[in-house]
Amino acid sequence: MLGSILVTHGPLGRRAGRVVEVEAYVGPHDLACHASRGRTPRTEVLFGPPGRAYVYLCYGMHELFNVVTDPEGHAAAVLVRALEPVEALPPGTRLDGPARLTRALGIDRSHNRLPLDGPSLFLHAGAAVPESRVARGPRIGVDYAGAWAAAPLRLWVRDSPHVSRAPSPRRARRPADAA
DNA sequence: CTATTGATGGTC
DNA sequence: ACCATCAATAGG
After folding, report:
1. How many C-beta atoms lie closer than 10 Å to residue A46's C-beta?
2. Are the CB atoms for A136 and A153 separated by under 8 Å?
3. Is A106 within 8 Å of A10 (Cβ atoms)?
4. Which residue is nearest to the C1' sugar atom of B3, using CA?
5. In sequence order, what are the beta bridge partners of A82?
6. CB-CB contact of A20 with A84 (8 Å)
7. Which of A87, A91, A144, A165 is surrounded by the fewest CB atoms within 10 Å?
8. How far apart (Å, rounded) are the C-alpha atoms in residues A107 and A101?
9. In the structure, how far is the CA atom of residue A167 from the C1' atom of nucleotide C8, in angstroms?
């Protein structure tokens, strides 16, 4: 998916970006994958056919965009984490972060389950990124997932200035008043 | 530059 | 209770 072009069309007009950073969520056995907690109303789309959008609300205020990737019955998806602008966007628009890019392209939960070859959401195959320019490392924000947190399932275009910056490590949450 | 915190609501 | 995050702030 790196190098492909995501195009949206909606109230904001036409918006587009080139995918430069993604994370793979590889199936129910992947403890960071939402499908690992079973088939629920939210995760239902993951079990359906590939090539559709999985959009969900994160932290109560951010819409995150994924592409369902695997054949029907095997729940896996790829989270898009950063785009490189490919069309004129309002000044100051940032596409380096999974919630920033959905906000900038006007993607929200109304796009959940939509095929990615439609009028409001389209994913074009772009020029392939050579493997020599692809870097990989641990996924971000999934430390709860045990060994799966360390798996090198985040991939990005090595020299792209549009890749998101890893957050500073969040201090261990304040221990609940343990009794 | 790094580190920390509050905002905010759906899910199960 | 637990989050696949961001923006703003404080401090070096």
Report:
1. 24
2. yes
3. yes
4. A168
5. A21, A96
6. yes
7. A91
8. 8
9. 15
End-to-end Cα separation, chain A, in angstroms = 48
pLDDT tens digits along A101-112: 999 999 999 999
Give the contacts of A54 (CB within 8 A, at least 6 positions apart). A45, A46, A65, A66, A67, A68, A77, A112, A113
What are the structure tokens assigned to A48, written together? 């359906």
Residues in chain A with pLDDT values less than 70: 169-179
A97 touches strand C (CB under 7 A): yes
What is the distance between the alpha carbons of residues A72 and A81, in angstroms, rounded to a whole number? Answer: 24
CA A53, CA A1: separation in Å to the nearest integer? 14
Work out the angle at residue A145's Cα, subtended by the Cα atoms of residues A70 and A104, and round it to the nearest 5 degrees: 65
User: DSSP states of A74-114 as a string?
Assistant: S--EEEEEEEEE-S---TT---BSHHHHHHHHT--GGGTT-
Would you state the pLDDT for residue A167?
80
